[in-house]
Amino acid sequence: xxxxxxxxxxxxxxxxxxxxxxxxxxxxxxxxxxxxxxxxxxxxxxxxxxxxxxxxxxxxxxxxxxxxxxxxxxxxxxxxxxxxxxxxxxxxxxxxxxxxxxxxxxxxxxxxxxxxxxxxxxxxxxxxxxxxxxxxxxxxxxxxxxxxxxxxxxxxxxxxxxxxxxxxxxxxxxxxxxxxxxxxxxxxxxxxxxxxxxxxxxxxxxxxxxxxxxxxxxxxxxxxxxxxxxxxxxxxxxxxxxxxxxxxxxxxxxxxxxxxxxxxxxxxxxxxxxxxxxxxxxxxxxxxxxxxxxxxxxxxxxxxxxxxxxxxxxxxxxxxxxxxxxxxxxxxxxxxxxxxxxxxxxxxxxxxxxxxxxxxxxxxxxxxxxxxxxxxxxxxxxxxxxxxxxxxxxxxxxxxxxxxxxxxxxxxxxxxxxxxxxxxxxxxxxxxxxxxxxxxxxxxxxxxxxxxxxxxxxxxxxxxxxxxxxxxxxxxxxxxxxxxxxxxxxxxxxxxxxxxxxxxxxxxxxxxxxxxxxxx
Length: 520
Fold this sequence. Notes:
The protein is of the alpha/beta class and 520 residues long. The chain is built from 18 helices and 15 strands.
């Protein structure tokens, strides 16, 4: 069981954003339309065996052609905000030079549709779709890519700065470095292991240059970045497990957050010889650590770490879901590995469902970074196999995704309680939660086999069907709004605190109902 939507709504503080998220490459399709240039992901996804069952992103959910319909479904859902990403190769084919007018026009229409529907836009500037020409020049191994991101940020700032309420400069640099350049699971498919470290600094520099471009354009919207965060848990009391978890924490979490929030890399990282495989000017850190209006966390699960190579880098169930057998990746060579959680429910991706660790993640962030800006959970969600139930009498379809609904409810409740007064992370100013994802989509190397959406997508007909989780989120928002309206009505009611003595013996004050009625 999980908390009711009404009771959960009562925990939501004023001004807290409830939203949903997507990314351009995962939903738009139309890869060869509207002047879009090729992305490195286009080429990677076309490689036989790179994607589960060789699924193709060429059509995806066809959002490029069905955008007005999708915005109508967002409006029906009632969300406060929609997080989407601009497609770099659609706006700036090749990653250099002038903007593509057709690409700008598509996002013009999207933003106007959102605002007309009362939905606040949160735009991600870079969500992994590096233009192919930049990747061929080295991609994030090349420092120049950071400057190209800054130039691209200036283009979108000038075009859309008047309508975007929140900006995310870059999404999950940790995933790009690890899956794209260290292990070869994502585009561009490099297997550089520790040689991928330059991509960390170059992405963070790109973030900082994008912030500079947005500030120079004087955009009124809030500016932040986002990275995935996973608490690292030792597999046992073995000191080696604890050390291994600490190293994983450095590489997954602090390596990206520390430079942005403190202006320096963790001491251990800076002391390690392999990190000196690239040099950078000292002024880079000032660019990277510019003050932000918010810091975004993508939270899905904790990670259990054990010393030794084990059976591979990650559990086989998780590996297979990603579309590549990771079980042999680093096997026999890595000093530690990820273990399973036998007692936990797992998602279709093989991820453990442990909502209590959401509080751990928020507590760790709050304690590590005393000057932490407001935080937004920019992604949270789960992939589960969906079963479609058809009512023959009405020819309607229903998808009872109770496990996804419970995952979202439990994680949001945990986050709200952790950051409420008396919570373990009460010093954190938590401003919102965005569900990943609005609709089922192309889930990178997992293709269409990992549905995260509140909306089911039939990838043959492209029909959208709301799931039970969609209606639950809709109910949550409605209950939140009803409670807020009731509080406002009470606050605005004029109820006299002190009755004037009219000198008539025995006069009585009207009861509360009469007082409220008289001033209604």
